[in-house]
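G., the chain you wanted modeled:
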Amino acid sequence: MNIGDHAFKIIVAGASGTGKSCFILRHLSGEFERRHIPTLGCEVHPITLHTTRGRIIFYMWDLAGAKEFAGLGEGYYQNAQGIIVFYDLTVPDTMTCALDILDKHKGLASVLCGNKADLLPSDSVVRPRVDIPFYYISARSNYNFEKPFLSLARQLLGDDSIEFTESPAITPPTVSINETRVGHYPRLRV
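Predicted structure as tokens:
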């Protein structure tokens, strides 16, 4: 790490199959993994971001979402500064899991992501009312894929003017998002 770099431990949590590992892989390699390969326990991946405030390194702690690993997860939160919580927009029950995780870890800089926005018709989405940054994302289409990181960087450094100075190298999306449709997703209280 260089002088002036910032490093943070970030937890990536949510139910199994919500796209947590796929999201991280997209940032690391630019590739989109089409197969669901469940995380066993925890995997840690450093992601370096180049910003107007220098380099920021997020050590992404990708936690298994499977219920059989639920008891192991709490120890991984020790010394974490931020959390990105995922739910699958196509599986409504995963939102309850995401909201429970956020409720347990209120002291962390937080972002909630409704993933798989590319798979939904606009009338089938429920957006939770939360007091933290929320984004519809799609790792498959690259839609909003940088926003959770930018939000965490701004929260952790207390600077809303932070911007990225370099973009990660990613492969072109295989699908596209209709931005007008996503803008009409309802915002309902959950």
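Residues 185-190 have pLDDT under 50 and may be disordered.

Shout if anything looks off.
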